[in-house]
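Example complex used in Figure S2.
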Amino acid sequence: MSDSILEVRDLKVYYGAARALNGISFNVNEGEVVTIIGGNGAGKSTTLKTVSGVSELLKTVEGEITFLGKRIEHKAAHVIARMGMAHVPEGRRVFSQSTVEENLLLGGYTRPDRRSLQASIDEVYDRFPVLRERRNQSAGYLSGGEQQMLAMGRGLMARPQFLLLDEPSLGLAPLLVAEVFEIIRTLAKEGTTILLVEQLANLALDVADRAYVLETGTIAAEGTAADIAVDPKVRAAYLGA
Amino acid sequence: MGKFIQILVSTVTVGSVLALVALGYNLVFSTTRIVNFAQGTMLVIAGYMAYAMTRQGLPIWLAFILTVIGSAIIGMLIELIAIRPLGRFDPATNVGWILTTFSVGLIAVDVIGIVIDAQPHALPNLAGSVFGWKASIVAGVPITLTDIIIVVSAVLLMFLIEVLQNRTMAGRAFRAVAQDRQTASLMGINTTRTVMATFALAGALAAVGAVLLAPKLFVKLENGDLLGIQAFIAAVLGGLGSTRGAVVGGFAIALTSAVVKTVSAGAGRYEPLVIFALFLAVLVVRPTGIFGTPYVEKV
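Predicted assembly (540 residues):
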């Protein structure tokens, strides 16, 4: 596949003697939004963290992860980030003692063209106007929704070729969840390649092109988002129908 | 009046250097959440390094520059030998670092004693060698150029570090690593190298402190315990991790010890007692130190 951004083959991760991932395979093509849905503890976050290289279990990884044609399963997180992958982690993880603007600057840490960072910051402010108002505040004082916007803006600052979003709806009020997904939809329309992990399966399937269903470390179903959304088993287990 | 000036001079000079060394503890603590108990030893190593070079005939200013570089390398070695092998550990539950940092410190002091010698030494006066000025007498108390250089360079260095931390990408990256190492690595920051750089900086600060204070306190093996522990107390008193805290803590300790020493000639032996009493009293009232913020686990 020539336009493949990410190719994961037979990925196994061990947590002590237990397997957290039982040999999963999936891929993401350029310009696609792919979602991994599944319940608590299915291994969704472990998958993303293994791909971006921050998993604590990295030493136990077996299998292949290919990003932009290069094997990365044993590369350090900062090296993978410099290759063009931006991971917006679960729980936002903003640098709470740094200001909003400093967080965004850090998002652009890998960029060689540091002079144009300010222009990118302005783009992020246009996308998330609330961040502009709070640019000089410590990120720790932002609300949960604002922190999610900041985390996503920080990810975009790297001008990534591939964006990983881990549970962007986590802990947000319904109105804010809708807002966050509206932003994901916009990013998708602009052609951003996204791998989205989300517990709110209906929302995730709505923005995604393709989907994988992860159950206790194994891929239980895969297909176009539209097909998965009408799959009776998926509907019963994850869509409350 | 004379005693007052004497206390003032001693407080400001010794306090500045303690603050510098305390800053070394702070930097390392910020990025690693460990206390580098070999920090005091770095002072000793730097002092003897400078002494050994001047003994070979090097001018003191050159010895000073080489010592700062050498001490930065020693700092990195300490990280490599005493910290890195522990792996990605949680410093709160895995306390191996207490032993490893103490051990490299003790071993290094013994090695110096064997390789160079265990005697106290005077270093040529750095300030005098550059500017050739001896002293002015104020109210019967000599104020030397050394005193002024100590204060000015310590203040300048601390100012520089503050600016670097807040205004440069490297400084922002340092603070990012201090807050959340994992997320910092997602930004593309090489966190291993950042941690190593903080050890190098701590080593360099110790070298500056050692050479600056040599005209007042000599170069001797006991300085590691003496200054190292006093600087550690200064860092904790001010609030571990806070630059302002390091300055205030350093001055508080220096003031206390200057007052105790000045009250009567024989009172010097009460110096540690009074310092530790002050330390305990402050921590009882403010357990996180004067400027320390309670370490809150992020949600």
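Residues 17 and 34 of chain A are 30 Å apart (CA to CA). The mean pLDDT of chain A is 92.
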